Amino acid sequence: MKTFNELNIEANVLDALAKMGFETTTPIQAQAIPTALEGKDLIGQAQTGTGKTTAFGVPMIQKIDPENKDVQGIVIAPTRELAIQVGEELNRIGHNKGVKTVPIYGGQDITRQIKALKRRPQLITATPGRLLDHIRRRTIKLQNIETVVLDEADEMLNMGFIEDIEAILAEMPQKHQTLLFSATMPKRIQLLAEKFMNQPEIVRVKSKQLTVDHIDQYYYDVKENQKFDVLCRSLDIESPDLAIIFGRTKKRVDEVVEGLLKRGYSAEGIHGDIPQVKREKVIKRFKDQATDILVATDVAARGLDISGVTHVYNFDLPQDPESYVHRIGRTGRAGKKGSAYTFVTPREMDHLKTIEKLTKRQIEKQSFPTYKDVMEGLQEGAIEELKQTVWAHEGDNYREAAKRLLSEEDAVDVVASAIKLLAKEPSQTPVNLTSVEPLRVKRVKGGGQQNNRGGRGGNQNRRGGGGGGRRRRNNQKQDGGNRRNNRNKNQ
DNA sequence: AAAAAAC
């Protein structure tokens, strides 16, 4: 494993990386940084969560002349949140060098962006449409662009941005370096590379490194109308620190949020019809752990890097098997462990098999969570919470109160009552979801998938038995109605 | 058919 020190990175960038806690490189970084530093065009076939942003950010920033106040680099990303996030990371990497990055995306007041651009950032991270808008308004000038990065190129293709991308690339007046990152390399992206790139070097992260080894994957075999109750039970048993729940449609997301709120969970939703300002607030609250549960469409499936996400739920199977990998990649980040639970209705079982083939991992069937499981889980959690507070009361006057109580009541009864008080019965408020969208799967001819993953097929069945209930509960509910709204952060 | 994205 290589460290950043070995890669000819200039001191102040290296220093910034160290401050960010980055020492050893990921495979894509080790391969892409030296190539990009040589000034070569590069195609990086790598997925989200592999350290891509640093892989292109370091060479991009190293190349910048901080005395020059023109825009010297542009990153194009498929979603607004991603543009924001990449911008934040570039700002950190470029901080010591005095390199400024401004995110440019739709849904935000354009005069505000023009003001930010007047402060002369050297880097811009953008979504395609708004970037094009600025280019045509001449509020972003391209004459000194040195580097262009296309992030998640295949996703931009899927979302129909390819014409915008081509229009942007065609506007570039002079020679520049182009770095293209894509999880898959469909024909259309290859053509784009041929047209706009100059003898690109191809860097591939091996298939095995693409898979998500530290994420435990499970599925629940459910009927459509059981999903919501199973979700709540699973949340009660698992007690995630932070969870993301993916739904298939915007309406679906709204309904799940509403249902969760009705039952006392702390949840917020995000999708493309939510006003941009609210979207950013929702993400911020979730990052700050002020909200425990984020319910989302695939707008949040790619690239979002939120630390502390312990659980991902696929409330609905994703249409596109690729999307499954991206969704579950929101957990288990930075080497931490994560769990992914997928709800599968009987007619969707074939689709699940397709996903298993793609990820080369078996997704383990999880037994239906019973009410008894939930109560056991809640009780265990309550016991855990009690245990954590036991020593805290040493020597204070609560001990005296406890002695008085124990002189009157049976000790076991007292503790049992305490557990019962803490292990609040889950809300049974009826919730009825109406937005059942049947899954439509593209028919694929003769197995000719367009995903050239370069690996063998077949499952690598890595975990045999141990199908039973595993439970880890850390945080516990507080009192009454807003039990999930207050979090017990201190151990 | 849905999702995302420029006004």
TrEMBL record:
The gene from which this protein is expressed is: cshA
Q: Where is the Helicase ATP-binding domain?
A: 33-203
Give every DEAD-box RNA helicase Q domain span. 2-30
User: Where in this protein does the record put region Disordered?
Assistant: 433-491
> Where in the numbering of this chain does the Helicase C-terminal domain appear?
214-376
Give the SMART domains listed for this entry: DEXDc (SM00487), HELICc (SM00490)
Compositional bias ranges of the Gly residues kind: 446-468
Catalyzed chemical reaction(s): ATP + H2O = ADP + phosphate + H(+)
Q: What is this protein called?
A: ATP-dependent RNA helicase CshA
EC number(s) given by UniProt = 3.6.4.13
Look up keyword Glycoprotein and say if it applies: no
Member of which family? Belongs to the DEAD box helicase family.
- Record the organism: Alkalibacillus haloalkaliphilus
Q: Which PANTHER family match?
A: DEAD-BOX ATP-DEPENDENT RNA HELICASE 47, MITOCHONDRIAL (PTHR47963), DEAD-BOX ATP-DEPENDENT RNA HELICASE CSHA (PTHR47963:SF5)
Under Gene Ontology molecular function, one entry of this record is: RNA helicase activity
Any single GO BP term: response to cold
